[in-house]
Design a protein that fits this description.
Number of strands: 15
Largest sheet: 4 strands, antiparallel
Order of helices and strands: EEEEEEEEEEEEEEE
Helix content: under 10%
Radius of gyration: 20 Å
Strand order of the largest sheet: 3-4-5-8
Strand content: 25-35%
Number of helices: 0
Shape: globular
């Protein structure tokens, strides 16, 4: 329903003065009389955390499913992501029947309820702590605590690589530093940085001002 703001990603030009905004002229439905002009994409159920890849500008989001599938979407201008006809690649509520509805944008990847029950979108990794993950989309799940990096096989098919599982995590969001490294945010208030497994490097941070070399 393009006449409703619900289930949409909206795009606004906020440079219009206090308490106002403009409609970007290149919004996909800016010239459609029956549509909300702010709509960028539609057919979403419950987007939970979206971000732009700082290197490519691509918009990705985690999409919380209803009963059966969780999904990750790559959002494009004017895209229809299928809710409430589809859930993941499948017909809504089905474990086996594919959606196969013409004109809809498929997700990048889906997860069954055995792996994820409330997806949390993250960031494309552009940091230095884990060079092997540069360019991969990192995301997780609020319920299971699973955290994945989205890789691609030789046929350019998305393949989630499980990085870690945080027990009792309640993973509510991710953050990204100016250096491109990625942090997890938990509903308890805990914030953690994703780093390679194995022994931690020696902590050489000075404990005293006299150890900094800046003061006597």
């Amino acid at each position: 329903n393009l006449g409703s703001y619900l289930g949409k990603i909206l795009r606004l030009d906020i440079n219009a003065g206090a308490g106002a905004y403009n409609i970007p002229s290149d919004n996909p439905f800016a010239g459609v009389a029956s549509a909300k002009k702010e709509i960028w994409s539609y057919g979403h159920r419950n987007p939970w955390r979206w971000s732009f890849d700082r290197a490519t500008g691509e918009l990705r989001l985690g999409e919380v499913g209803q009963d059966t599938w969780e999904e990750v979407d790559r959002v494009v201008k004017g895209g229809n992501y299928g809710w409430n006809t589809c859930e993941g690649f499948h017909k809504r509520g089905s474990q086996s029947a594919l959606c196969a509805t013409p004109g809809l944008n498929d997700p990048v990847v889906e997860h069954p309820r055995s792996e994820a029950a409330s997806i949390t979108g993250g960031y494309v990794y552009r940091g230095s702590a884990m060079p092997s993950l540069i360019g991969t989309y990192i995301y997780g799940d609020y319920i299971t605590g699973n955290i994945w990096a989205l890789t691609y096989d030789a046929d350019n098919k998305a393949v989630p690589k499980l990085l870690t599982t945080v027990a009792g995590s309640t993973l509510v969001s991710f953050g990204q530093g100016n250096d491109g490294d990625v942090y997890t945010v938990h509903i308890s208030g805990a914030i953690s940085k994703l780093v390679p497994s194995g022994p931690l490097p020696p902590d050489t941070f000075p404990r005293l001002l006299s150890q900094t070399g800046c003061v006597d």
